[in-house]
UniProtKB/TrEMBL annotation:
This is Protein GrpE. Pfam families: GrpE. Its main location: cytoplasm. It comes from Actinomadura decatromicini. Belongs to the GrpE family.
Amino acid sequence: MTSSPNEGEESKEGPVIRDKRRIDPETGKVREQAASASSAPEAPANGGATAADEEVASLRTQLAERLADLQRLKAEYDNYRKRVERDRVAVREQALGQVLTELLPVLDDIGRARDHDELNGGFKSVAESLEAVTGKLGLERYGEKGEPFDPTVHEALMHAYSSDVTETSVMDVLQPGYRIGERVLRPARVAVAEPGPDADAAESGGAPDDAQGDEGE
């Protein structure tokens, strides 16, 4: 059996070894073929990075919208809670004010009895207990002689002029006032005096004018 010339040549040459190293061992530089192969996948890599950036931007936008919705919802809830608390306090004060208003005549009787030294014995103990309870509920009595007149909390039943005052003042308290916090249950009924000459001075000053008028006639 004969062999072809090509087969003989291949047997003489032996196996073929191809050098696929990216860096040339003699020059230490990157071979052109390896450089071109490594740069080839850059296009899809850049495309993938762009898509990822767009997705991240979209997620950030959605997150900002959800955060804004959450903040708005929290603000609405806080306003609702404050409004409910304010209404609850107002209803409580209104109901309490109605009850205490019914007790004001009793407190007036206790005050008159104290002024006439008739508050003694068991009646005194009951009266003091009632005043203590109403005080704990926030009921405040006001109205003192000499304090400035305030039409928002005082009701003037009597009026006069006096040289002893420099502003409109309370000269006498005819009936004390009561309030709960800033809410007035009953204004203090008082007698007030304004700065000016007193009645006696006005009458004495008017006499000479009358006398002069008579002389003229």
